[in-house]
Amino acid sequence: MTGRPAGTPYWDPAELPSQPTLHGVVTADVAVVGAGLAGLSCAYHLAERSPGLDIAVVDAAGPAAGASGRGTGLLGPRAGPALDRAVRRHGPHAARLMHRAGEQAVRDVLALCARLGVPGGPCPGDQLMAARSPAGLTALARQARAARELGLDIPVLTAADVRARVGVPYRAALLHRPAATLDPAALTGALARACAGKGVRFYGRSPLLAVRPGDLVGPELVLPHGRLYAGQAVLAVNSAAGALDLPVGTVLPLEVYAVATEPLSRAAYEALGGPAGHAVVDAVPLAPYFRLLPDRGLVAGGGTATVPGGLGAPGLQARRERAWARLEDWLRSLHPGLARVRVTHRWSGRIGMTGDDLPVVGPVQGLPDVWYIGGCCGHGLALSVAHGAHVAAALLGEPAPGEPLPWHRSRAPRLPVRGPGRSLLRGYVDTLGRVARHAC
Fold first, then answer.
1. Does the UniProt entry include the keyword Oxidoreductase (predicted)?
2. Which of 53, 59, 88, 157 is the most buried (most CB within 10 A)?
């Protein structure tokens, strides 16, 4: 490890707009709570389509401080549950629609990066959903069959095909396109700067405490040092919905982990795909995955997820250390050239999970003129940007361009997150992690 403290992500959003703390009474036409990709995408598309709109973005910390700046930068078309489960739960038409929406979301992010001039830009490349274990091969076979029956172009790669791309002995893979890797904090920061350039106001270090109907029109947002009254509000707060007691069902916070390394040797870098920009995700849920970095480093994530019990929960740091250690051991097993590679960054972030693996993007019941966005279940890089654009269009009264998607809804299923139920959930997630690590 370097001198960087544990928890410091590899990414740096660089220059950000001014973000004073909100004090006193403030008004806006639209208030966006959450300066991550979903909230900033919503603010950006609102300002782009309606230049005279008064928009205020409020965040508990600032842009890219949460999950949007702490991800691993895998941009792929995954949306909702795996294809075979999507067919079983929602039918073939909806499953095909969901996958097509994921593909379009990737294309839209690539176009947005070009428009904003995101520093470093995305690195277009293949995303391989690969398998080394019998469980992974079974999962791949089910998804390949579903893709074929749905008429989707998701080629099957043999072990030789995989090794021609990345020198890791996976036994098979599915090839997902379009896909890319990018710096998630750079995209978030570029969106924030673009919003500020369009007149959007930012307030940082202003956590939302409560939201309630206003006296005349629109919601009232209660903050530690003031009130924000808006005609409309978007709560892009992901798993913080539970703490705010929002009636959006259960969006469970899960803490997930990542590490980044020093630059690899030229031989190891080329063997793992080099500048082609491939990302490899194991087919077993929660299993580790990796991608390469422009500086020849490697980022690995997954392998462990925990249901947090609060920042001061006993044993939290010890659980993080174990998760990072497992990831380090796994990445060193990928290729002989990684046996002594030095890990330079270790960090974690919180994602929002739902009981049916579908996001929640819709109006909040009981709160007129308030929308919620969250629950991307770890696949939020492309989907968050798409969700923000969708909500912006809805707030402006624009007709939806296509059929409603299964995640255009106001609530997710409820899960038992209090009392004994929380211990059961934690045990279930821990079991998934053990199964995933054993399979890899």
1. yes
2. 59
- Which pLDDT tens digits describe the chain residue by residue (440 residues)? 444 667 899 998 888 999 999 999 999 999 999 999 999 999 999 999 999 999 999 999 999 999 999 999 999 999 999 999 999 999 999 999 999 999 999 999 999 999 999 998 999 999 999 999 999 999 999 999 999 999 999 999 999 999 999 999 999 999 999 999 999 999 999 999 999 999 999 999 999 999 999 887 799 999 999 999 999 999 999 999 999 999 999 999 999 999 999 999 999 999 999 998 899 999 988 889 999 999 999 999 999 999 887 545 668 889 999 999 999 999 999 999 999 999 999 999 999 999 999 999 999 999 999 999 999 999 999 999 999 999 999 999 999 888 999 999 999 999 887 777 777 777 777 777 776 666 66
Q: How far is CA 117 from the centre of its chain?
A: 21
Query: What are the E-state strand segments in 102-171?
Result: 123-124, 127-131, 156-158
Asked if 400 and 274 count as a contact pair (C-beta separation under 8 A), the reply is no
Query: Distance between CA atoms of 300 and 289, rounded to whole angstroms?
Result: 6
Q: How far apart are CA 208 and CA 298, in angstroms?
A: 36
**Count of C-beta atoms within a 10 Å radius of residue 369:** 18
Q: If we measure between CA atoms, which residue out of 169, 178, 346 comes closest to residue 271?
A: 169
Q: Assign 146 to helix, strand or coil.
A: helix
Q: How many CB atoms lie within 10 A of CB 148?
A: 12
Mention every residue, 6+ apart, whose C-beta is less than 8 A from residue 187.
37, 109, 112, 113, 116, 118
How many helices (H) and strands (E) are present in the chain, helices listed first?
A: 9, 19
Q: Torsion angle, CA of 151/155/156/160, rounded to 10 degrees?
A: 170
CA 120 distance to own-chain centroid: 20
CB 308 within 8 A of CB 352: no
Helix 420-439 with 134-150: angle, nearest 10 deg: 100
Contacts of 401 (CB under 8 A, 6+ apart): none
| Interhelix angle 184-197/37-49, nearest 10 degrees | 30
Q: What sign has the CA pseudo-torsion 139, 141, 142, 146? A: positive
Return the bridge partners of 252, or none: 353
Strand positions, DSSP E, 307-430: 343-353, 360-363, 370-374
